[in-house]
């Protein structure tokens, strides 16, 4: 079948790879090429954050956890399994997504917190990973072309709509709204573990091979992609409180991305269009699970 995928973020590229693997002919069209997308700004750890409904998100997250586990052994994919610690103000029961990870253990919380647990999660270096996904599309015979669309294309057998926040226009779906996320990149100071505090003031610290990504913000309905100095200062203060070693790290640069939030992630077929958007704060975490479902909805090659 001739399939056009709209969108070259992590959701579109993963769908394209899975569809090509199933024998479809796939062309990706996108206004922003992979390294220019929101996906390129993601921190990115596996974590089912701000995506709904929980039952489908759990299944998609579990599938992606396994897929990223396998990619951790692949040269150049930019995926590493790392232990980390999530902290809380007060004692916690097990998380709703517990069954998606092989082990999760409560540990003594750092000073100033009421509870903490540790688990191993995939850390995905998005610029490397998106480049690797794009090269997989190419190797498997697909194409990626820059094109700013004012409507979904008509003509291919099936169109897969992975436009992220662009689905507001392309699917006339005003329930997709931006949740603005700002990050600061710091120099690596020998940090191995990730840290997360997902309370009202979302704070995370994600070590990568050559730098550390710290965040964040989750500003609902905010469209500005310009980094704010006030946000950066608040992010750094919270991150340094959580991980005091960061005092020694130099600030390298600042980025902003707009998470495509929706009351529920949309993975559904409507005629010749398969919609796959609204992954909120978990597009990386859900990407392999939702791509498998898209393959089922597209049907046999
Ligand atoms: C600061 C930050 C940190 C994050 N951290 C994590 C994390 O740790 N883990 C995690 O799982 N997720 C994380 N996320 C969320 C994740 O980044 C998103 O859920 C994910 O990027 C959504 O991917 P997408 O492919 O749907 O959208 P995008 O990456 O936005 O891609 C959309 C694509 O559609 C194209 N498009 C849109 N409109 C049109 C049009 N009219 N014509 C042609 N093309 C169009 C765009 O050009 C682009 O290519 C984070 C997000 C931010 C901002």
Walk me through this protein's architecture.
The protein is an alpha/beta fold. It is 26% helix and 30% strand. The chain contains 6 helices and 15 strands. The strands form 2 sheets. Strands 3, 4, 5, 8, 9, 10, 11, 12 and 13 form a 9-stranded mixed beta sheet that branches. A 6-stranded mixed beta sheet has the order 6-2-1-7-15-14, covered by helices on one side. β10 (203-207) and β11 (211-215) form a beta hairpin. α1 (10-21) packs parallel to α6 (283-298). The mean pLDDT is 97. Bound molecules: flavin-adenine dinucleotide.
Helix content: 25-40%
Extended strand count: 15
- Overall, the morphology is globular
Q: Which structural class do you get from the secondary structure elements?
A: alpha/beta
The largest sheet is: 9 strands, mixed
End-to-end Cα distance: 5 Å
Output mean pLDDT: 97
Rounded to the nearest angstrom, the radius of gyration is: 19 Å
Low-confidence stretches: none
Supply the number of helical segments.
6
Which ligands accompany this protein? flavin-adenine dinucleotide
Keyphrases for this structure?
301 residues; alpha/beta; nine-stranded mixed beta sheet; six-stranded mixed beta sheet; 6 helices; 15 strands; 26% helix; globular; binds flavin-adenine dinucleotide
